[in-house]
Amino acid sequence: MRKGLISVVASLLAVLAFFILIVYVGGLINPDLQLDETALLRFVFVAIGLVIVFLVYLATRSSHIWEVGTREVVYMGIGAALYAVFSYLFNGTVFVVPSVSQVALRPAIAIPMFFGYTFGPAVGFFTGAVGNMFGDALTGFSLSPQWSVGNGLVGMIAGMAWLFADKKKGINVVLIISAVLAAAGTLLYIFNRAQPNTMFYDVPNGIFGDAPISVFAGVSVVAGFLLVLVIRIIFRKDINVAAAVTWSMLGNIIGLGFAAISDIWINGYSPAVAIVGEFLPAAGPNLLFAAILVPILVASYDAVQVQMGR
Amino acid sequence: MLISWRYRERKSLIQKFDPRAWLIFFALYLVCTLQFWDLRYLAGLLVIALFFVFTSGIEWKETRRVWYFIGGFVLFFSALTFLTGRGGVEVYTVEHSIVVLKAPFTILGWQPTLNITAERTAFAISIMMRVFAMVSMTILIPYSLDPALYGVAFRRLGMPDKFAYGMDLTMRFIPTLGRDFSLTMDAQRARGYEIEKLKGGLIEQIRKLAPLIVPVTIHAIAGSEDVIDAMDLRAFGVGPRTWLTELRYQKHDYILIALGILLAVTCVTLALFGYGKFWVPPFLLNLAH
User: Fold this and answer.
1) Is the ipTM of this complex over 0.90?
2) Which of A97, B129, B147, B242 has a Cα at 20 to 30 A from A63?
3) Residues of chain A neighbouring B83 (CB-CB closer than 8 A)
4) Within-domain flag for B35
5) Contact predicate B265/B189, CB 8 Å
């Protein structure tokens, strides 16, 4: 551990030295040098995300939820592979799943949520982050490593459900936080209704993320929140399903929020575009998947567990 | 049953390198490609990628389908960017029109107009090069990296045992789960399930994806019991893991890593100084005048 720490610190110092050197040498050549660091920022945000994950781990490391044994290692592999395969299949090239009112169907997001909730935050983070990375590689799209970390956060936070000994208390806290965040995002939409929906691509009709956001996509986070609330009330007896849905919702809001906000610096979006044009149309539909597919997965897994006697 | 990538031993340049050296070079290469929109810089990077593709010994008939799929996809996207001018708005703001083609007919009062500008042409070429450069390097990995070395390569790159093994399992499970997915799809189709014809409202449509997603997921988890047992029987995670194969850097591995670092440092420095941004060839601009 100590040796690893030294090498991490050493490489960070090397990077720092490199930048100081660039600023110094560049200043000698051109006195009014303006450094253009936008392309590098995505790596900076990956580092910020990983630091957040590490701090959360440090704060809660005494809990058993972070234990990683053989079982968890295998679930990490399966979860990440499933997420990669599903995001490849449902990205709109292999199957064209219809989109309803500018909401593209991305069912793959249910995988990191389910794996995170069922097998713990470490498995959830790995599933989201590594799965998204491999999914990007399979598709051949350009890489956005900060979105990988965002997806990892989705899975990790879904797994934090087990931190609360009393799940009901946890659910209520999560519902309040999510309600505040969803309301804040939607309020921003109400004041910026003309923003383009950067997540909506409709190639045959020539729409490349520049059509004005539809009302449904704008309020989809609230719609998702209400749906989650309904599921929570329907399953008030089955606390397992209720917790899975609510914690997945919080993970989704925070994880995608992190990625969208980082685009303010990386892509030079204004805060309004990042939240209204990117966060709402991505996070809202995901909540619908959290509310519908995650309970089915949790219930099926419970049934299988009974069958296998584990 | 596990199915695997189409790896086999080939007499090729890329397989002479240690997998770690290759992965490091690959990561540095991606960092470089992400810095640029200028098609001159991208062309240089594409040449590097093509050099490795042509010396890799991978035959055309093995990878034909992958290239067709990605080629068609990229061409389609860049052609549409070119025709509609959308998608490139992030990197350029001024457009110089070369030709404006107006259709001699109108459809419901709308006259199809094709406005070819210098910027759109250059952007379509740039994006094509960018994606092809990254894809060419990525395709090489499953065909040329020995699956038996995934785990040890990630471990010796400094990742913890468990994380390295997780990465190993991920890369091994992807083709298997892809196969499982198509099996499940066929089974459900035989029962009359049609994913192409999902009906109903949004919620109903999402619910109807469950017959596809739930069986694949649950089957994968239930099937993993064998893998877990096998690993437990070999005392996985009890002590530091050992690997049957030892990896040792040779001289040429150090050279490859050094070249990769040199490339990355050069690219990052150029990008920091503002080079390599979107560039339109002057002859295209001349055409516009």
Assistant:
1) no
2) B242
3) 206
4) yes
5) no
